[in-house]
# Entry
Amino acid sequence: MRRIKILKLVVYLFIFVLVFTFTGCSYKKTTEDIMGKEISEEEKDTKANFQATEVSDLQTKNLHKLGRVWGYVKYSHPVFLLGEKDWDEELLNLIPIVYNSESEEQVNNILYKWFVELGEIDYKTSDIDTKWESATEKDKVVQADTNWIEDESYLGASLSDSLSQLKVIPEVNRRNAPVYFINLGMPMFKNEKSYEDMSYMDTDYRLLGLFRFWNAIEYYFPYLDIMDDDWNEQLLAFIPRMIKGTDKQSYELTLAEIGVYLHDAHVRFEDRDYLFNEFGKYTAPAKLTQVNGELVIYYIGKEYRDSCQLNPGDILVKINGKDINNVIDEVKKYCSYPTDEKILILAPLVLRSHNKTMEVTVLRNNEETVLSIEGVEDYNPRIDISTSHELLENNIGLINPSKLSYDEIPEIMDKFSSTNGIIVIYGSILQI
# Structure
């Protein structure tokens, strides 16, 4: 089995931020298709606006193969590493052809012909990174299992042999490559295109977003080998979902949903409007903490304390009549988080509503109480915790270990001995 490996140093500080908010559409400049025949103006227009809402099992398998082959070639072939060809354009032209193919064998032939027409495999250098040559096996980490490129029953002999030519990549100038590396080898994807006028009904652009994200994770996410879920199977599962969507909301939710399988809170869109569209733009002016697996109010914005009926210590039970656990499950579907013990990461999306006034049921003094809460927009205050401890409203103690001195502990515990509860926070600034 052949695997691509990179130095541990390369992936040690990897943080992946999902920034693929495609908002544009470009004209495909190619005048010949992969099969070598001339394309009429009518066919060009069809290719430039390829739309499909249904997909068969065969089409899904064929598109899945396309996504994998394109990703491998994108990150390995010199025409892309040296910026000589547009990797997005190549995929956009392939998608409708592969979608309309009648067999897996036909797809193998299409991809083989495409690979050959990319041109000579010439990296303009034969230099190999000396760090790689001198590194021991224990200092290398497995990244992507590329054993599949040697499977002739899957790709056909011609395509398999062609892909195998990309086994060793020399140290090239990656200035125009799909990915380059900065401090400690952290991968950067800034050469990826953004599309400002994209039509979210166009199937090819939707699949471009999915394939771009999936391959970036496949080759540069450091924890792929310890994931609970098979990343390859996720690509197969999400192709039909991406194709069936027709708008921006479905596009972004689909990418967010596949990102959940990484169980990494760093995987997110920079623009989170799609989440507010899904769960509501109004939020209660309160901060939550997690106590014994339950979400508990611990802070009310100072400017809202007179008007907001929530109190520190209130345990969330329902929001707008929906059980809090069901609300959390809905948020989990689109927000990546490590474990169920870390659901506090989801807190900013829990206390939300599409209506300005929301009904919140809490457990207070062992009794359920239904409250009417006026929601606000863009509520995310930084909480001043410059002192080691504080007594909050509703007789709740707050302890900040980062400001705590050892000789204070007996005094604080005596002071908080009769409180309704104690919240311990970590860090000089807490922002949830």
